[in-house]
Amino acid sequence: MGQLRLAPASPLDFLDALDDGGVRHIYRTRPAFAEAARQVAASTGVTVKTDDGELVLVAGLQPLGDEALALWFAPGAAMRRHVVSAVLGIRRRSGPAAGDVAPCTVKAATYPGGVAGPRLLRLCGFEATGLLESARGPVTVWTRRFA
Fold first, then answer.
1. Residue 51's domain is classified under what CATH number?
2. CB of 79 closer than 8 Å to CB of 86
3. pTM above 0.85, yes or no
């Protein structure tokens, strides 16, 4: 396995993102792509790809308020093969980024029925802390506090 490459996130990276069923359609509608573009524009984001350009993960941190950041991410087809590297990368980068504004709470959300998102968040030290109604239905809120 080669090295992973990091680059600033782009909305175009979302076109290769997968849903929990492994289908590459989730961001190929105008509303979903527009949502991804807004996230990238309002965030500090990174795209992780393999040496041959296969998407591992696109992720970012977005301000939520005075003491909170939102972590968003979308996995690619190479995520399963590189999950350990992705988790270590998220842990390594979210800590210092959150530490810049500590004390800080980092939050993320997953849709019901998801497996990969909740698993990744648990591995990154997040805990499920409740449910929230979103424009696309109920989501589970995940939280991690940085002191």
1. 3.40.630.30
2. yes
3. no
What beta strand segments (E) does the chain contain?
5-8, 44-49, 55-65, 68-75, 104-110, 127-134, 137-146
Residue 84 above 70 pLDDT? yes
Directed axis angle between helix 83-99 and helix 116-123, to 10°?
60
- What residue numbers bound the domain in which 126 lies? 5-146
What percentage of residues in the chain have a pLDDT greater than 90?
12
> 96: pLDDT confidence band, cut at 50, 70 and 90?
low
Please give the tally of structural domains in the chain: 1
Q: Locate 22 and state its tokens.
A: 């492994």
Q: Give the C-alpha separation, 109 to 112, whole Å.
A: 10
71-96 average pLDDT score: 77
Question: Contact at 8 Å (CB) between 19 and 26?
Answer: yes
Tokens of 59: 């992720």
**Strand positions, DSSP E, 53-136:** 55-65, 68-75, 104-110, 127-134
Contact 74, 58 (CB under 8 A): yes
pLDDT at 1 over 60: no
